[in-house]
Design brief:
The strands form four sheets. A six-stranded parallel β-sheet has the order 3-2-1-4-5-6, with helices on both faces. About 45% of the residues are buried. Helix content is about 30%, strand content about 25%. The chain is of the alpha/beta class. It has helices spanning about 10-20, 35, 40, 55-60, 75-90, 110-115, 125-135, 170, 215-220, 240-245, 260-270, 285-290, 310-320, 335-340, 350-360, 440-445, and strands at about 1-5, 25-30, 45-50, 70, 95, 120, 140-145, 150-155, 180-185, 190, 205-210, 230-235, 255-260, 275-280, 300-305, 325-330, 345-350, 365-375, 380-385, 405-410, 415-420, 430-435. It is globular.
Length: about 450
């Protein structure tokens, strides 16, 4: 597949790195040769110095034959204009990164489609959604609701209080049990579990279940005593913090601590209609300030500055002060493993969120949702089984799925079901696929009609 990425910033470079592993024909273009320097040797990609809004540069990048053009420069207007021009030249699909919430209205989708923009991504809004989902369940490290919440994937750190430790999964996850463990993170190792595998203290386990069984999962995981989140401190008043505050439940009280006085003024303007949000000028690393603002009575601390080290250290400080739920923005991928080893809580990375949204557009099968799970170097995707596709021909245990792939559940006629080896997938089912090491391109062939494969 021919893919052109306009913008060699954090998102564009990360996306190029991910897609290069799938042997796509990738061109990364940017006005700055400095940002492009060495990337063509580091990844299996081509680089091109030129503005994504230059017609000649787009032609030099062979946009007329592009299957996908992605505009991810820091400038929203540049991305929109680049996508319009790439589409006019001949690119089949386009994606633009934006920072205007108004554009995300579903009513505007036909308008942007007519302009030649197939999809918009607003990473800050997607990150804020993840944050609020995490705050609603303080005992969960990661949560992913699929098919309007009919099924849920929960990433839970297990402690000695759990009563499902040190027992074979075949004794825990039978056909009549309300959950399936699809992955286990143990130290630096990701385990795709089988029946004889066990859960141990300190594991990060991923459970596929249905919403009605979440209280049961909470009980067996030993998390019943975790407090519900009512009071939150957010360090850093950027766009993600604003979106989180605007979308938080009414019963959640939020304090945003921001160092820049001018930004504090802007935050007060943006959040003037929210009753439960207070903006405080100060340094969120200042322990005396945190004490003054009632850190001892806070159930969650969210660190959203642009500095990963600051966010990690601030989260560790909040934990030592008794906060049960911490969330840290860690954009530097090299720090994610360290953050996980320090046990700081939930990690937010906007690059992977944006990349997941774009990645699903590259798959030929009907994929309505893709989520990247950084900690376990994996993806979860919602595939729709096409008529006459291989996945509908045999029970799950006989499909010959690639190593590292697990099917956790499906939705049929808006009813969620867990899947085991004897389950038979039918055409039209929405199937939740867990895939280790980002090999979704190897899975999609099972969900496409047989006639499209050969």
């Amino acid at each position: 597949m021919k893919i052109i990425i306009g913008g060699a910033g954090e998102v564009g470079t990360h996306l190029a790195r991910l897609l290069s592993r799938d042997n796509h024909d990738i061109t990364l273009m940017d006005e700055s040769q400095e940002r492009l320097a060495g990337l063509d040797n580091k990844f299996d990609i081509m680089t091109l110095q030129g503005a994504p809004t230059s017609i000649q540069a787009l032609k030099d990048a062979n946009a007329e034959n592009a299957d996908l053009f992605v505009g991810v420069t820091p400038e929203e207007s540049t991305n929109i204009n680049a996508c319009i021009m790439a589409h006019a030249i001949g690119a089949k699909k386009t994606v633009a990164r934006i920072d205007n919430y108004e554009y995300m209205s579903p009513d505007l989708a036909p308008f942007f489609k007519e302009l030649g923009i197939d999809s918009l991504i607003y990473p800050e809004m997607l990150a804020a959604k993840d944050i609020i989902n995490g705050l609603k369940m303080s005992w969960v490290r990661q949560r992913w609701d699929v098919h309007d919440g009919v099924l849920t994937l929960l990433g839970i750190k297990l402690r000695q209080t759990s009563n499902i430790l040190n027992r074979p999964l075949k004794d825990l996850c039978g056909p009549d049990d309300p959950y399936i463990v699809v992955a286990i993170k143990r130290g630096d190792e990701t385990i795709i579990p089988r029946g004889n595998d066990e859960l141990h203290n300190g594991d990060l386990a991923y459970f596929m279940t249905m919403p009605k069984h979440i209280p049961y999962i909470r009980e067996i995981a030993g998390k019943a005593k975790y407090p519900d989140v009512k009071n939150v401190i957010i360090m850093g008043g950027g766009k993600t913090a604003v979106r989180a505050a605007l979308t938080a439940p009414d019963n959640m009280h939020i304090k945003i601590i921001e160092r820049d006085p001018k930004r504090c003024e802007r935050l007060n303007q943006l959040l003037c209609h929210t009753k439960n949000t207070m903006v405080i000028e100060g340094d969120g690393r200042d322990v005396s300030l945190l004490m003054e603002e009632g850190i001892r009575n806070v159930q969650a601390f969210v660190a959203l500055t642009t500095n990963a080290e600051t966010n990690i250290l601030a989260s560790m400080t909040a934990m030592r002060m008794g906060v049960s739920k911490t969330i840290a923005r860690v954009e530097n991928l090299d720090y994610i493993a360290m953050a996980e080893s320090l046990d700081i809580g939930t990690i937010i990375n906007k690059k992977t969120i944006a990349a997941s949204h774009i990645y699903q557009m590259l798959l030929d099968a009907d994929v309505s949702n893709v989520r990247s799970l950084m900690v376990v170097d994996s993806d979860v995707a919602e595939f729709v089984a096409a008529p006459d596709s291989p996945v509908t021909k045999k029970p799950v245990k006989a499909l010959g799925l690639p190593f590292g792939v697990t099917i956790g559940g499906l939705v049929r006629n808006d009813v969620g079901m867990l899947v085991n080896g004897n389950s038979q997938i039918e055409a039209g089912d929405s199937v939740m696929v867990f895939c280790h090491e980002h090999n979704l391109n190897k899975v999609e062939k099972f969900f496409k009609p047989k006639g499209l494969l050969w």
